[in-house]
Design brief:
Helices cover 0% and strands 42% of the residues. It has no helices and 16 strands. The strands form four sheets. It has a five-stranded antiparallel β-sheet, with no helix packed on it. Strands 9-13-12-11-10 form a five-stranded antiparallel β-sheet, with no helix packed on it. A three-stranded antiparallel β-sheet has the order 1-2-3, with no helix packed on it. A hairpin with a 5-residue loop joins β10 and β11 (113-117).
Length: 188
Amino acid sequence: IVVADTLNHSIRRLDGQTFATTLLAGGGGNFGRQDGLGAAARFNFPTGVAVHSSGDIYVADTRGYSIRRISPQGQVQRIAGAETESDTYRDGAAGVQSLNYPMGVAVAPDRTVYFCENQRHTVRRVLPNGTVETVAGAEGVAGFADGADANARFNFPSGVALDAEGNLYIADTGNHAVRRIAAGTRTV
């Protein structure tokens, strides 16, 4: 079991038999925004993890304003989020995106990574080609509305999950609801 040890700014593995924990990555209490190998990497309030069948682990590094990947060898790499924090919001190349409190993360078999952008009230994804795009919601507009693309409204979404058919489920925290985006659509 892989968990985000949020307040210790670390990612840990929990043995399901012995319940012993092992530090996979992060500073074990020291926060930051640094890529690196294992304990040399730094996270800042990680809130979600998802494991791909390849063994790669994807992390929503909430106050690190990024989505990070941990390889099976323990190498941590930022895959989305600008090097420095800014308020710019746009779809495009993953390395220049400013992410505002990314929370929750789910990874599809093709390595598309879905996450909630909590403070901007949107659901976004990182495509395998390195592009970040908004799936649903309007940047900075909270509310509760079903609809397609920017017509959908969320209120501080905080978690995502994919089922075997590719349907995306969103924990719409501020609305006390679980919402669904059907596979292959952008409609809530």
